[in-house]
Specification:
The complex is a heterodimer of chains A (about 270) and B (about 425). Chain A is built from eleven helices and ten strands. Chain A has about 270 residues and is α/β, with parallel strands linked by helices. Chain A folds into two domains: about 170 residues, P-loop containing nucleotide triphosphate hydrolases (Rossmann fold); about 70 residues, no CATH class. In chain A, a hairpin with a 2-residue loop joins strand 9 and strand 10. Chain B starts with 5 loop residues before the first strand and ends with a helix. Chain B is mostly helical. Helices cover about 70% and strands about 5% of the residues of chain B. Chain B is globular and about 65 Å long. In chain B, the strands form two sheets. Chain B has a three-stranded mixed sheet with strand order 1-2-4. Chain B has a single domain, classed as ABC transporter involved in vitamin B12 uptake, BtuC (Orthogonal Bundle), CATH 1.10.3470. The chains are: A alpha/beta (about 270), B mainly alpha (about 425). Chains A and B meet through helix 2 and helix 5 of A and helix 8, helix 11, helix 12 and helix 16 of B. The complex binds adenosine-5'-triphosphate and magnesium ion. The site of adenosine-5'-triphosphate has 11 residues of chain A, from strand 2 and helix 1.
């Protein structure tokens, strides 16, 4: 894998962010490369979600720099970020259960009919939307034929696929996924992790926030550990063990101090998500 | 949806799902479930229509005057004004909000119409336009307050209700009513009937247009290899609608013809249904009603759409007030008071629009108001006391609300997991 050699598409340099007295981020640096899955792990409140929000401009950073292809850049909000090619799927799924799969994928960017139907009658082009939705889902190998059913009737994994398909709509280069598997069963998690691999194969730079180290090791190339708003470790998954990552998360100097946690990843997961 | 759709194979080989197809293998239970299943972001009108039939048959058995052309024409004239208000209520319920001031707005705008047309002698049509514009302005104001100050809509519109009753009284001064000219244009709005030929032309034209658009849409979907309904079902539906429309025109023509006010009411329903289901504004309205936070994150201008929905709701309420004034040939201090508000909201909910936002159909206003109107008209025919009318209407509303709450709980718990 030569991902580590390619130039970063997005680079964070010494990002700082405080909410009043709370220093959520205290100088975080990261490099995101195309075709690479970058996992962000850390205890609750470590600043993972905040980091994602500073990238998209939902919560502007107070210090540091964001470099987009080497150029300093800051985004005014998710729409601005999306225009530049950065898409986000939030921790709490932002789908409208009452709307169809296609309407959800195109939410806020509905296609309109061309000609008088569109300009005079302002009619939404559902055929085009449904067709493109099907194409998108197929490109992700998601088996979802009925793009006209309301999203509330779908399984958690399918809903996550809809959210990811929507994030893919603007042909982004960077995809930020905040805990995409948190609420899913084993089978659905598997489904979504496959989706993440497909995004990587399509050449996207993917950031995945997760509390589940097994998932992280299954899907990512690089792991960055955040602790109290700082980078507490960076690991290449091919040459690191889960114990080392756990140690960095909890702040222990070495993994030997936590034998039971290190040996049992499921305990770790429960421990972390408490 | 619990119903599995049948899958047919295109010559090309990719499976094309179709819905609603009557298939040999389908069991009776599935048919019944299909009849009562909720449709995507909309509702299924079948059970409500069934309710309407039950109500009509019931009253016809009790009093054979109920289903006469004369009574049905009167009934539809009676419900047109509250029906238009109910359409506005549906729009606001779809947004996930409520507007308690719609009846007060209708009364106030009726009074404005009276002052302009009678007292100041303005042209009737200009007065109507101004009265409706006043309604739109009130809705814009209330919507803005709800949106920018994040006050629950029911508080703001409750204040609006009381305030507007005050303004209405102030407009009337010492009077209790303003009477319109019996032969004037305001009165004509609800006293005009279309000629039998015009009625038929409208029914035929509407059916032809509907057939053209639905079949063209189906062909488009089929060509694109997308989910489309079975041709037989589609044709059956069109025949059903044609028979319904033709039947209505035939009944109206046995009396005085299709009432202009009813034609306008149904026209408003059709146009608003199109706006809600087929336009960008409508999709976004439903999105906000379904999950406002998701809509905001998708970059939808939530505040603007909220305000627009309140403006539309109030504009329709004002026009409902105009129709009420026209039918009474007077604006009174009692216009829009009494059971107008409860009937408008009840019509929307009984028709199947959810109080919890994002689910429903503009047609629920039409069917709901027909049920409420039939019950009220039928009880009048049976000379039941007002007490019974109120109690029975409230029981129907209670039933509808409970059904809605159960359905909403079902879909929400599905979304949690
Ligand atoms: N909007 C906010 N206002 C004030 N403080 C905030 C806000 N959002 C986050 N914080 C604080 O910033 C810190 C980092 O929070 P953040 O949500 O980024 O953590 P996280 O790593 O995503 O945690 P989790 O695993 O629970 O999702 C926490 O101390 C949190 O309380
Ligand atoms: Mg978080």
């Amino acid at each position: 894998m030569n991902a580590l050699q390619s130039d970063p598409v997005l680079e964070l340099v010494d990002i700082r962010k405080s909410y009043g007295p709370v220093n959520a981020l205290r100088g975080v640096s990261l490099q995101l490369r195309p075709g690479e899955v970058h996992a962000l792990v850390g205890d609750n409140g470590a600043g993972k979600s905040t980091l994602i929000k500073t990238i998209t401009g939902v919560q502007p950073h107070d210090g540091g720099q964001i470099l987009w292809r080497g150029e300093p850049m800051s985004f005014a909000g998710p729409r601005d970020a999306a225009r530049r090619g950065i898409s986000v799927v939030y921790q709490d799924l932002a789908v409208c259960g009452n709307l169809s799969v296609a309407d959800n994928v195109f939410l806020g960017r509905e296609s309109r009919h061309s000609g008088p139907l569109g300009s005079l009658l302002r009619r939404v082009d559902r055929t085009a939307m449904e067709q493109e939705t099907l194409d998108l889902l197929r490109s992700l190998s998601v088996n979802l034929q009925k793009v006209r059913t309301p999203v509330e009737g779908l399984s958690g994994g399918q809903r996550q696929s809809v959210a990811i398909a929507r994030a893919l709509l603007g042909k982004p280069e960077v995809m930020l996924l905040d805990e995409p598997t948190a609420a899913l069963s084993v089978a659905q998690t598997h489904e979504v992790l496959n989706l993440v691999r497909r995004l990587r194969d399509q050449g996207l730079a993917v950031v995945i926030v997760s509390h589940n180290l097994a998932d992280v090791f299954a899907v990512s190339d690089v792991v960055t550990v955040l602790r109290l708003g700082q980078v507490a470790g960076r690991f290449d998954v091919r040459s690191s063990s889960q114990q080392e990552v756990v140690a960095a998360i909890t702040g222990a100097e070495w993994g030997a101090g936590l034998p039971s946690l290190a040996e049992e990843p499921t305990t770790t997961e429960q421990e972390l998500s408490r | 949806m619990s119903v599995q759709s049948a899958v047919t194979r295109k010559p090309g080989g990719t499976p094309v799902p179709t819905t609603d197809g009557p298939r040999a293998g389908r069991s009776g239970g599935a048919w019944i479930r299909a009849l009562f299943a909720r449709r995507p972001s909309g509702i299924n009108l079948a059970p409500v229509l069934l309710g309407l039939v039950v109500v009509c048959v019931g009253f016809q058995t009790a009093n054979s005057n109920f289903l006469t052309p004369w009574n049905l024409t009167n009934l539809s004239l009676q419900v047109a004004s509250v029906g238009v208000i109910a359409v506005g209520v549906v729009v606001i319920l779809l947004l996930g909000e409520i507007d308690l001031s719609v009846a007060a707005i209708s009364g106030f705008c009726g009074a404005v119409l009276g002052v302009l047309n009678v007292q100041l002698g303005w042209n009737a049509w200009l007065s109507i336009v101004v009265a409706v514009s006043v309604g739109i302005a009130i809705g814009t104001f209330q919507g803005t307050v709800v949106t920018y100050f994040r006050v629950p809509a029911f508080v703001i519109t409750l204040a609006g209700l009381i305030g507007l009753q005050g303004w209405t009284l102030a407009l009337f001064g010492d009077r209790t009513a303003i009477n319109f000219d019996y032969d004037g244009d305001v009165a004509k709005l609800t006293a005009t009937f279309l000629s039998p030929l015009a009625g038929w032309l409208i029914a035929i034209g509407a059916t032809a247009a509907l057939a053209y658009f639905t079949l063209a849409e189906r062909a488009r979907l089929k060509a694109a290899g997308l989910e489309h309904s079975d041709l037989r079902t589609q044709v059956l539906k069109l025949v059903g609608i044609a028979v319904g429309l033709g039947g209505a025109v035939a009944v109206f023509n046995r009396d005085r013809g299709v009432p202009l006010a009813v034609f306008i009411f149904v026209g408003i329903v059709v146009v608003m249904d199109y706006v809600v289901r087929q336009t960008r504004f409508g999709v976004r309205l439903l999105a906000i009603g379904g999950n406002a936070e998701a809509a905001r994150r998708a970059g939808i201008p939530v505040q603007r759409i909220r305000i627009a929905a309140f403006a539309i709701g109030s504009g329709l309420a004002a026009f409902g007030g105009v129709l009420a004034a026209s039918r009474l040939i007077a604006a009174t201090t009692q216009s829009g008071a009494g059971d107008t508000l409860i009937n408008a909201i009840a019509a929307a909910v009984i028709g199947g629009t959810s109080l919890f936002g994002g689910r429903g159909s503009v047609y629920s206003a039409l069917v709901g108001i027909l049920i409420i109107g039939s019950i009220s008209n039928g009880m009048d025919l049976l000379a039941l006391p007002s007490a019974a009318k109120f109690i029975i209407t409230s029981m129907v509303l209670l039933l509808a609300v409970v059904v809605d709450a159960i359905a909403a709980r079902g879909s929400r718990s599905q979304l949690r997991e």
